[in-house]
Amino acid sequence: MDVLVQLEEASESAAFARVNSVRGLRFSDRTSRDVVTLFGIPSPESLALALAASLESRRAIAPGSGHPDAARCLGVFAGRGAVGNTEWRDQSTGQLVTNNLEIPLAVLVETSGAILRDCGQAIGRLLAGLLMPDWPEGTSRALTFSFASSSAAVLVPTEAMMARLREADGFTFAGEDD
């Protein structure tokens, strides 16, 4: 999963980060892309919390719900967690459907801990790139972050992941040596 991480000046809001999803092209393989915006001077922990909000907001939208490309907009707050909403267009009525979404701070802390363990060095390099002083004046400080395959397991409950691995272990391909 790729996430665009951008850095902006500190804002008046109490949120230290914002997570938005941007809908993909209609006939594209990618349904949506997440954009994480950090305000002020970020730390590895604040970036990991914002990335955790991105992951957990994707998890909150059930895969079988028929709305994997629902637009998400969340603010990430230091003492509260992530608060925002999801919205999508109902295919049968054409109405815009909006649902509130709240991710508790405890969930974000647990997920961000896993992200830091799995991707700590990559997060450090990303922050170093965002905080470099020689960005051209007037440009948006934004870089893409890709979760390593090991951190993608954060999205899948352990039991489900183990079941998939056991099932995959049973599949073999016939080769010339057989």
Give a short summary of the structure.
With 178 residues, the chain is an alpha+beta fold. It has helices at 44-60, 105-130, 158-170, and strands spanning 2-8, 17-23, 32-39, 71-77, 81-89, 96-104, 141-146.
Helical element count?
Answer: 3
The overall strand count is 7
Number of domains: 1
Give the topology string: H per helix, E per strand: EEEHEEEHEH
Indicate the structural class.
Answer: alpha+beta
- Give the amount of beta strand, in percent: 25-35%
Spatial ordering of strands, largest sheet: 6-5-4-2-3-1-7
Helix fraction by DSSP (H/I, runs of at least 4): 25-40%
End-to-end separation: 37 Å
Instruction: Give me the Rg, rounded.
Output: 18 Å
Shape: globular
Largest beta-sheet details: 7 strands, mixed
Q: Averaging pLDDT over every residue, what do you get?
A: 80
Low-confidence stretches: 149-158
Record the SSE blueprint.
Blueprint: E1 2-8, E2 17-23, E3 32-39, H1 44-60, E4 71-77, E5 81-89, E6 96-104, H2 105-130, E7 141-146, H3 158-170
Parallel strand pairs: 1-3
Antiparallel strand pairs: 1-7, 2-3, 2-4, 4-5, 5-6
Helix pairs in contact: 1-2
